[in-house]
TrEMBL record:
It comes from Nocardia cerradoensis. It comes from the Bacteria. The lineage of its organism: Bacteria, Bacillati, Actinomycetota, Actinomycetes, Mycobacteriales. One of its GO terms (molecular function) is acyltransferase activity. This is Thiolase C-terminal domain-containing protein. Residues 261-383 form the Thiolase C-terminal domain.
Length: 385
C-alpha cells in the first residue's frame, strides 16, 4: 500500500495592512491560529514548525523562538528557513520530506513581516537589507539602495534582449489590478487603465511606482499533513516540487541576469506526471512587473507564443490560456514574499475565489524566486478528488 499523499490542509491569513500595526510575532500567531482552525486540529496536533521571515537583520524578525511564544510544545521539527522569495516553497518541500521520512506528521509553515513602522515606510526598511559588505556594499556606496534600482537594470536589459517594451510592463500591471478588483484581501482595488499606468511616477527607469510590489504588514500560515482527516474538506495534494539555484556571477562579458529557472518547473512537472498543458492557473512571485514576464518566458508557460504577445492577447487574464496571479499578485494584492502566490493558489483550488474565481481550476503552478532571479522554486498543487 502506498503512503498517503502529502497535502496542504490548512490556510490562515491576517488582514493585509498598509499602515503600521502589529509585530511579525503577533501577526504570525494570528495567522497560525487561523490555519490550525481551518485544518480542524489543535496546537498539540502539530509536531513540526517551519518559520520564514523577510531578509535583513531586524530586531523584530521572526525566528524559531516563535514556537514557544505561539504555544507549541514537544516539537519533532523546528527550523528557520531562508532562501529569500523561494523560502515558502522550500518550507513546503522540507515539510513534505519530514513527513515522508517519519520525522514529523503535521507541519506548520508560517511567514510574517511588518516593514511598515511609524515614522518610515517599507522602502527604507528594505533598502537596508543585504548588509554593507561585498557587492551589496559597493552598490550601497554608489547610491543603489534596495531592490528597485537593481531590478530596473534587470528590466531594461530584459526589454532590450527580448525586443519587448514598456507596454508589456503596462499590460502586466493592469491585468494584475483587474484581478485584484475581485480580491477582498488586496490592498489596491481601484480600477486602472493604461494612462493611469503611464501617469505613475518613475522610480528607477523603466520601473514606475506601479511596477513595484506593495509591501504590507501581515502573515500567512499553512498546515502540511499526510493525514486525510486533517483539513478533510480543503486538502490540496502536493504533486511535485522542483528547485534550481543557478548561482549568478554577473561578471563583465557574460550574460547572467536570466536563464536557469526552467529546470525547477521541469522537475516539479516530472514528479507530478503532468505537462504544462495540464496547468489551470499559475501563481508567480512578482515583486516587479518585469518578473512576471521573465518567469512566463523562462518557465516556457506560453507555448510557442512569444511572452509579450501572449500577455498582450490576454493570456494571463480572466478567460486566458493561463490565468496568472489571480489575486492581483504582489503588485496589487499584497507582498508577503512567496506566501502571496501560495495563498492565492490555495484559495483558487478550493473554489473560494469569489468574483475572481477561475472556473474549474484543479491544478496550479506556484513559483517562487529569490534575490535577482537567483533562486527558483516550483510547486505543483492539485485539488484532492
Amino acid at each position: 500500500m502506498s503512503a498517503p499523499s502529502v497535502a496542504i490542509a490548512g490556510l490562515g491569513m491576517t488582514e493585509m495592512s498598509v499602515r503600521p500595526g502589529g509585530t511579525p510575532l503577533q501577526l504570525a500567531v494570528e495567522a497560525t491560529g487561523a490555519a490550525i482552525a481551518d485544518a480542524g486540529i489543535e496546537h498539540r496536533d502539530v509536531d513540526g514548525v517551519l518559520v520564514g521571515s523577510s531578509q535583513g537583520v531586524r530586531p523584530d524578525r521572526l525566528g524559531v523562538g516563535f514556537a514557544a511564544q505561539a504555544g507549541f510544545a514537544d516539537l519533532r521539527l523546528l527550523e528557520h528557513v531562508e532562501i529569500k522569495g523561494a523560502t515558502t516553497i522550500a518550507m513546503v518541500q522540507r515539510a513534505q520530506l519530514a513527513i515522508e521520512t517519519g520525522a514529523a506528521t503535521t507541519v506548520l509553515c508560517v511567514f510574517a513581516d511588518a516593514p511598515l513602522v511609524a515614522g518610515k515606510g517599507a522602502g527604507s526598511t528594505y533598502a537596508h537589507s543585504g548588509g554593507n559588505a561585498g557587492p551589496r556594499g559597493l552598490e550601497r556606496a554608489s547610491g543603489v539602495l534596495g531592490s528597485v534600482p537593481t531590478y530596473a537594470l534587470l528590466a531594461r536589459r530584459w526589454l532590450h534582449t527580448t525586443h519587448s517594451s514598456e507596454a508589456d510592463l503596462c499590460r502586466v500591471v493592469t491585468t494584475a489590478r483587474g484581478w485584484a478588483l475581485g480580491n477582498p484581501a488586496a490592498v489596491v482595488r481601484t480600477p486602472l487603465e493604461e494612462q493611469g499606468y503611464y501617469d505613475s511616477p518613475m522610480v528607477s527607469d523603466p520601473l514606475r511606482r506601479l511596477d513595484c510590489a506593495r509591501p504590507v504588514n501581515g502573515a500567512v500560515a499553512v498546515i502540511v499533513s499526510a493525514d486525510p482527516a486533517v483539513g478533510a474538506d480543503g486538502r490540496l495534494i502536493v504533486r511535485g516540487i522542483g528547485r534550481h539555484h543557478p548561482i549568478r556571477r554577473r561578471r563583465a562579458g557574460r550574460e547572467s541576469w536570466f536563464g536557469g529557472g526552467r529546470r525547477a518547473v521541469d522537475d516539479a512537472l516530472e514528479q507530478s506526471g503532468m505537462s504544462r498543458g495540464d496547468l489551470d492557473i499559475a501563481e508567480l512571485y512578482d515583486p516587479f512587473s518585469v518578473v512576471t514576464l521573465i518567469l512566463l518566458d523562462e518557465y516556457r508557460l506560453t507555448g510557442a507564443q512569444p511572452v509579450s504577445e501572449f500577455v498582450r492577447a490576454g493570456g494571463i487574464g480572466p478567460g486566458g490560456a493561463l490565468p496568472t496571479n489571480t489575486g492581483g499578485g504582489q503588485l496589487s494584492g499584497f507582498y508577503l514574499q512567496g506566501m502571496t502566490p501560495l495563498a492565492e493558489a490555495i484559495v483558487q483550488l478550493r473554489g473560494a475565489g469569489g468574483e475572481r474565481q477561475v472556473p474549474d481550476a484543479v491544478t496550479a503552478l506556484v513559483g517562487g524566486i529569490g534575490g535577482r532571479v537567483d533562486h527558483h522554486a516550483a510547486l505543483i498543487l492539485e485539488r484532492a478528488a
